[in-house]
Structure formats: C-alpha cells, structure tokens
Amino acid sequence: MIEKTILNNLIQNEEYVRKVVPYLKSEYFHDHADRNLFQLIIQYFDKYNKPPTIEALSVDLSNAEHLMRTSTSLLRILLILWAQLKVIWNG
After folding, report:
1. Which residues, in sequence order, are CB contacts of 39 under 8 Å at separation 6+?
2. What is the CATH architecture of 2-90?
3. The dihedral of CA 72, 78, 81, 83: what is its sign?
4. Least enclosed by CB within 10 Å: which of 22, 41, 49, 70?
C-alpha cells in the first residue's frame, strides 16, 4: 500500500518528488508493475526535471518495448485508476 502512495505522490506532487527521489530505489517496490512504473516516473523526471503527467506516462509506456505484455497491461490499468482518482480528489 505504501508503494502506491509513493507512486501517486511522484506523479502529483512536485515538491515531494524533489525531496524523495534521491533516496528512492526501484528495489523498494516489491510488485513488478510498481517497480516498472517507478522506473518510468524517474526516467521522465531525470529527462524533463519535473514529475510526469498521467498522459506522459501513458505515452512512455506505449514506447517501452522492454516491458513484458503482462506488466504493460497492469501498468495501463494502474494509470487509468490513478487518472480516475485524480478526478475524484480534485472534485
């Protein structure tokens, strides 16, 4: 559960990202899909120096050939759920 909270904050909270990224490692994420999503978020952050949007992660995910089909499907589901939660949280 804590991994999902971390991932959510990495997407939605730029101040959080800047504070915790130096201390996070992919090994901290036990679920394979969570680990892959974390790696996509960090790659985006390293490249653009800002947290990714759900849409940007979706594009990166579509381009990630190194992920297995199952992991890609799970990540797509996670991104859809986060997008829905974002709508609910923002009212």
Report:
1. 26
2. Orthogonal Bundle (1.10)
3. negative
4. 22
**52 contacts 11 by C-beta, under 8 angstroms:** yes
Q: How far is the C-alpha of 17 from the C-alpha of 9, rounded, in Å?
A: 7
Task: Reduce the secondary structure of 25-76 to three states and give it as a string.
Answer: CHHHCCCHHHHHHHHHHHHHHHHHCCCCCHHHHHHHHHHCCCCCHHHHHHHH
Ordered by start, the domain boundaries in the chain are 2-90
- Please report, to the nearest 10 degrees, the dihedral formed by the alpha carbons of residues 87, 52, 54, 30 taken in order: -100
pLDDT tens digits for 30-42? 988 889 889 989 9
Q: Which tens digit of pLDDT belongs to each residue from 59-80?
A: 777 776 555 555 666 777 777 7
